[in-house]
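Methods — Computational structure assignment.
A single polypeptide chain was analysed. Its primary sequence is given first, followed by the predicted tertiary structure written as C-alpha cells.
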Amino acid sequence: MSKDIKQNFNDEISLKELLEKGKEWYTFLLSKWKIILFAAAIGSVLGVTYSLIKKPVYTATLTFVVEDDKSGGGLGSALGLASSLGVNLGGGGGSVFSGSNLMELFKSRAMVEKTLLSNVVVNGKEISLAEMYIQDQGWREKWNKNAQLSKISFQRKNNKEQFSRVQDSIFGEIFNNLSKNSLNVEQKDIKVSIINIDVSSTNELFSKMFTEGLVKQVSNFYIDTKSKKSRENMLILEHQTDSIRRALNGAITGVAVANDNTFNLNPALNVKRVPSARRQVDVQANTAILTELVKQTELAKVTLRKDTPLIQVIDKPILPLPKEKFGIVKGVLLGGMFFGFLTVLTLVIKQFLKQLQ
C-alpha cells in the first residue's frame, strides 16, 4: 500500500512538473509574440508574392477509344476463301498495341519527340512544339547569351538522326520533364476501352496542341503498323492486276491484228490462222486471271478498311482549358503558418540549448 501511495505521489510530481514546464514554455513563447507575428507576416507576404509570380497550370484532356475488331464476321469467311486459294490478305496486326501497350506507346520517347518536331501556327507564325516549350520555359533567353546554344533550333525539317549531342541532351531533358510532370495516360476502368490522356503545362496553347499532336502521331504509327501486312498485300495484288490487264489488252490487240492478217485467207492455208488462235487463248487465260485478281484485290481493300480507323477520338480539349492557380489566400495561410512554425521551432531550440549551458 505504501508503494502505491509513493508511486501516485511521484506521478503527481511528474505531472505537476510537466504542467509547470509547459507553462514556462508558453510564457516564453508569449513573450516572443512580436517576433513570431513578424515572421508569420513575412511568410504571408512571400506566399502572396509566390502566388502572383507562379503561372497557372492548364490541363488539356483528350478521350479516345481503341477499336478492337477481333471477330471478322462475314469478312472472316471471305478471308478463309482467299486463303484457300493461296492468297494471304493479312488480317490486322493482332493486339501488339492493345491495352497497356498502347498507353506506353503514348509515353514513348519516339512518339513524344516526333510530336515535338511537328509544326503549329501561333499568332500567324509557324513554330515547332519543341521551340514553343523552350520559349515557355525561358530557356531561349538564357541560350541567347551563349554563342553555341543560341544557334540551336528545333524545326520540323530537322532530322532526328542528325541531331548533335547537345540537341539530344536538350530533347532528353524536355522528354523527362513532360513524362514526369506533364503527361499522363490512363485507362480509368479496365472493363471499358476508353483511354484518357492529360497534358499539363503553363502554356494553354501548348497543352492543347501537344495533346492533339501526340494522339495524331500515335494514331498514324498505330494504323501504319497494324495494317502494314494487309496494305503490302493490297499493293502487290494491285500491281499484279495492272500487269495482267496490260497483258490482256495486248492479247486483244494481237487477236485483232492476226484476224486482219487472215482476212479473205484461202481456207486451205490453216497454218496462217495459228497466231490468231494463240492470241485468243491468251485473251481467255488473262481474262480468267484478271477476274480472280480483281476479286482478291477487293478483298484486300476490305481487309485494309477493316483495320482503320483504329483510334477514335471522343472528346478533344476545348479552349479555355481548366486551370489550376496557386491562390492568394492559400499563399497567405501556408506562408504565414510555415514561417510562424519555423520561427517557433528556432526559438525553442535556441532556448533549450541555452538552458543546457
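Note: The chain has a mean pLDDT of 75.
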